Amino acid sequence: SFEVGIPKNFAFKLTSFPPVNFFNFPKKKQKLDKRWIESLFGKKFLIKPSEKFPNFFKLFKICQKYQECFFQKNPKKYGISRSETMISEKDFVLLNRQPSLHRASLMSHSIKIIPRNKCIKIHYSNCNSYNADFDGDEMNMHFSQNDLARSESLVLSSAFHHSKIPTQKTIMRSLIQDSIIASVFLTKKDTFFSQNNLFQILGFLEKP
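and the corresponding structure tokens:
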């Protein structure tokens, strides 16, 4: 329930400019040492020594395609010690639905990139917090730009930390609608599953 699904186009547009420092320099340098470039979804393009000439053009095309995603063209604004990084899975974003009625109208979620999706997907348990009623609600998304904002997203505005209404101490994040109906049907005494259906249901469970 902490994740939010976003389309691939969102991931291309949402970027940040983290500074190249002692902690993240080995990770950036690793792309050069291992002779591959990592794309949006972690696909590695290997350059084999035995095929230097064909793979050189392949690498050149990849660099042209993703040049705006790795390095900023305007060094005067950001300096040469920063690189442009696209949003990736497990990053934190802030979601807001207007009008903001209470504190839980602005919460942070972990990113899950869904390639064929065209809208923002959130878990049922977060609908009451955003007062979402499934009629084409518009959401605002902000990608944290520095380490301080990311730490605040993890500690202060995390969706897990807004499960209750502060004034009434009542539960706000909970299952609703068809998630409850499905739970009732699955737990009825006269409900039996075949082996194939059971393994199919277990396959959708999250790994511990």
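(Above: one complete record from the training split.) DSSP finds eight helices and nine strands in the chain.
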